[in-house]
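Running this now, will post back.
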Amino acid sequence: MTSSSIPGLARFNTLAAGEATAVLHEVCASAAWGSFVLAHRPYADMEALFSASDTAMAGLSAEDLAEAMAGHPPIGRPKPGDPASAREQRGMAGASEELRTEMLELNLAYQERFGHVFLICATGATGEQMRDAVKSRIGNSPEQEREIVRTELGKINRIRLTRLVQDSPEQGA
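Update: finished.
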């Protein structure tokens, strides 16, 4: 499929730089990531957009990764009024109070160990799966965890980019 056959991608390709920067910031809070993706427009298809996103993610410095992570709330506490955050963390919506409390404790322990929120591509994951992931990752070295976070951010960015081009005004979004 070419960008002309994907209305949202064609719209993204033609957004003014300021508007495109703003929507990219909603996908990923890293300015370096957004600048890279913006600089490589127009995109012929989704794979080209994903490839640019992945390349940008792979090139982020530790500071850029920290900036990207700062845009994500802790698991179990989506940003109020942020439908993307709530949608992505849907697996925690029906979690028991016990699981919510456990996740809060694990999030705090993880943040104390690594200096940032526990980050996982939560879309489609249950609360129990997210809990098990934080438990298994808390023993990682900071270097191992940084690369896992980079991978998880890449997955999140792909999901959000897909939603960005699918939720075009032409489709009533």
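The mean pLDDT is 87. More later if anyone needs it.
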